[in-house]
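Lecture notes, part 5. Sequence design as translation. It can be helpful to think of inverse folding as translation between two languages: the language of shapes and the language of residues. The source text, in structure tokens, appears below.
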């Protein structure tokens, strides 16, 4: 008899505990809001200096908080990155420069090291790590004199003789790319519905042309050149026309000087893909999702 009573008490306690957990467990939620920060690039013009020539990035984020440990999110980022040989000084004698505008859409999973829930005063801060995949659309530009030139309209290097899989899929001149974003950050609740994050992320791309620099110099007659405000410029090897060359009435340059580089010399490093990174903050507003019974029993 005593054993039966103990058994019934244990079963009763378990049922009560399960009901309590079901009643007060933090529900699944979504969070949406803006983000902004700084962005930078690492590649052929800047292989070693994070945050060198940092620029602005901004966008929006939407999170699905599956539980206190796992969050799945998508975010859009408008990113500007650039570099200049004269500023970075990795190879200043090359005199190349670029600036790229990137529209990035990423899908990542976040893991919270500490149980976290926006609005729960006992679980209101946590460091986290994340990783995922992104698709981006980009356009590279170069500053020529006082004019910005769209480099996607010019073939500054010869096509690769042994293209990598990415080049075969997208091609050098393709404006579409894919990347692997990853990083870490910290999130903290500001109120029952508002949260903030601070994070650093890197994105490994699978293109070497975010900066329009990747392989070797072509033959001189295959250099990409442009005429801007009556001056002739060599986009492939700017050392040939550092200040531009006047053009005649037919639009032809009045001189044909040699640059510092010959065909076949290394213009970039084709062994490594380009990267871009961001340091940013976000501010989001939480919306509770209904449970399976069409209501939300969370007390927060």
């Amino acid at each position: 008899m005593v054993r039966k009573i103990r058994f019934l008490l244990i079963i009763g306690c378990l049922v009560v505990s399960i009901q309590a957990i079901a009643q007060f467990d933090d529900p699944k939620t979504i969070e949406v809001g803006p983000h902004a920060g700084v962005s930078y690039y690492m590649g052929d013009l800047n292989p070693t200096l994070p945050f060198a020539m940092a620029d602005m990035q901004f966008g929006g984020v939407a999170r699905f908080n599956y539980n206190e440990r796992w969050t799945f999110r998508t975010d859009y980022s408008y990113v500007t990155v650039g570099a200049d040989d004269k500023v970075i000084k990795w190879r200043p004698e090359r005199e190349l420069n670029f600036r790229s505008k990137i529209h990035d859409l990423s899908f990542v999973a976040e893991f919270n090291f500490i149980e976290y829930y926006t609005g729960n005063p006992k679980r209101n801060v946590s460091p986290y790590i994340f990783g995922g995949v992104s698709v981006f659309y980009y356009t590279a530009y170069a500053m020529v004199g006082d004019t910005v030139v769209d480099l996607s309209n010019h073939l500054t290097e010869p096509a690769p003789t042994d293209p990598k899989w990415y080049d075969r899929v997208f091609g050098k001149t393709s404006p579409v790319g894919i990347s692997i974003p990853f990083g870490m950050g910290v999130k903290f609740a500001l109120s029952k519905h508002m949260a903030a994050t601070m994070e650093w992320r890197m994105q490994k791309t699978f293109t070497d042309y975010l900066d329009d620099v990747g392989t070797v110099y072509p033959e001189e007659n295959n250099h990409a050149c442009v005429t801007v405000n009556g001056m002739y410029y060599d986009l492939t090897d700017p050392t040939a026309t550092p200040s531009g060359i006047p053009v005649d009435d037919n639009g032809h340059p009045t001189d044909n000087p040699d640059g510092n580089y010959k065909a076949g010399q290394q213009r970039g490093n084709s062994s490594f893909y380009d990267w871009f990174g961001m340091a940013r903050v976000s501010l989001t507003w939480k919306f509770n999702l209904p449970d399976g019974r069409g209501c939300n029993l969370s007390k927060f």
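The translated text above is only one of many valid answers, since several sequences can fold into similar shapes. Residues 2-10, 12-24 have pLDDT under 50 and may be disordered.
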